[in-house]
Input
Amino acid sequence: MKQINDLLSKAADRYYNSSETIMTDAEYDRLYSELEALEAETGTILGGSMTQRVGFEVSSYLPKVTHPRRMLSLDKTKDRAALRDWLGEQRGFLSWKLDGLTVCLYYDGGRLTQAVSRGNGEVGEDLTANAAHIRGIPRQIPFKGHLALRGEALIGYSDFERVNDTLPEGTEPYKNPRNLASGTLRSLDPRVVAERAVNFFAFTLAEAEGYDNKTVSGGLEWLASLGFQTVYGRTVDRETLIPAIEWFEHEIVNNDFPSDGLVLSYDDVEYGRSLGETVHHPRSGMAFKWADETADTVVREIEWSPSRTGLINPVAVFDTVELEGTSVSRASLHNISIMKKLNLAVGDTVSVYKANMIIPVVGENKTHHDCDAVTPAIIGTCPSCGMPTRVQTSDDGVETLMCDNSDCPAKHLGRFEHFVSRDAMDISGFAASTVRVFVENGFIREYKDFFHLAEHKDKIVSLEGFGERSYELLTSAAEAARKTELSRVLYSLGIPNIGRSASRLICAEYPDTEKLEKLTKDELMLIDGIGEKLADDYVGYFSREHELNEYHALLKELEIALPRAAESSSGIAGKTFVITGAVHMWKNRNELKDYIEAKGGKTASAVSGKTDYLINNDASSGSGKNKKAKELGIPIITEEEFSRLVGQG
Output
């Protein structure tokens, strides 16, 4: 009992105070249940037992706040029939159990006065400075009485991936959205909260001066009318509860916000309060935890997946199993330490499940090895760039594999995403996620590799989420992109500050692939619209051997059409235009730019003395470009006026 309690205490300390996870939720729940069973069997509860504690003692630098009433955690079950029996003949409110940080908000006089984290249930952390930057928390509301409510602050999966993608090189990515939300809310810089898109969903109306709150569902509707984001839920009874659970179970895969189960509350507020509470949880609600569907399978390979931060994460590849209605054959192991903890080797039989019914996890290694520990097969070279790897050990003993090569393709995902974009090579089907997978698997190391995917066909079609059809669509798109325009090729290289317009200007003046790489700064600056900064960046790019070689290799894959001759007789030939604001006669500003250049005109991104017209449908706008145009006496025209101008040739 002491060993289990010490382990639970350590896990809770990391979870609540360091935003770290040393065990899965399933492991924690199993150990907690085991401790409860042992206490019941022995009739003994040790001092400091985790079963008697609401949370863990806060140990951060934020000011501490004592809650007016203890914030207890809910009792939980994985048994649907037991949950139905608990509800009995009462009506209930069934909602998502969101996986973030519980926060209590207080309003007085219509303004937010305090935001406090749950902490240990008795003392929390003051998050008021950050609350104003959390989505779903209004700063001011029409209700002027004292108001207290509780909800969950969390970060969605899409924003979680976005934040991990922008971490500095060498930084270990966040393991899950909950850890990221926890660390973000404890930040002393509110800008971090705003940038990371933290959301708040109210789940309980605790107190509202002068408002008679009769039902949980009605209270949430009232909070929504005041401007709060509220958790989604539906009222249920004994007959509709289990079908409703099945609906949530099916819908969770479409949910961008992490959820680790459901919450069932008695909808009648007074009835729920009349039941009181235990030392650990209120009797008015019950948490329903997903009973993880597990399957046994055999590990066939350990792949290593490099990332833009330099970390190379191990991935277990196993015989395909069906979990939660989908086929699963891969699961991230995150780092070397987890591999060692699992004592994992190729050929082992493991149990796998989906955490929160979404993320595949290797839960247990069922193979017994004669030796105490298996030495993980750690690769010596990066699968993306082929350079040597090294093992890095953090202060808390976590071992990770690193690639220190600054030119590793995995660290330059952005340039490959730019290369395939619509205005560049326009290789359709290559979403950012697809590019990432192909780079991490070593299929793409430089631009020419997009046209040699056939060399990796067997591996591509076996990847989770891909197949023969996906492979055919991607290779067909790449083949179609071989026939292209010179300006697209130049733009696709991602030369700093050389945008689509600059690429067109340069290629119109020098429509020759060999000449493009040899242009001097003086030659470039003779082109109207190319300044000193652009010229320096351009020359610098082609002066580097690696970039030049990559350009030469790419040209061998392409069929480049000569630039189309621009009209010289239109009313805008030789004129320079800047476009700002929304357009409605063209699909977008890029289409309008294409039209201008096809008619012999030029486009620029900034208003200057060389600008002939500023196109803006809102001439009264106070934008910087409008002000600059007025200062320089440059005409500001609408799209309709521009169309008439074109017809004056």
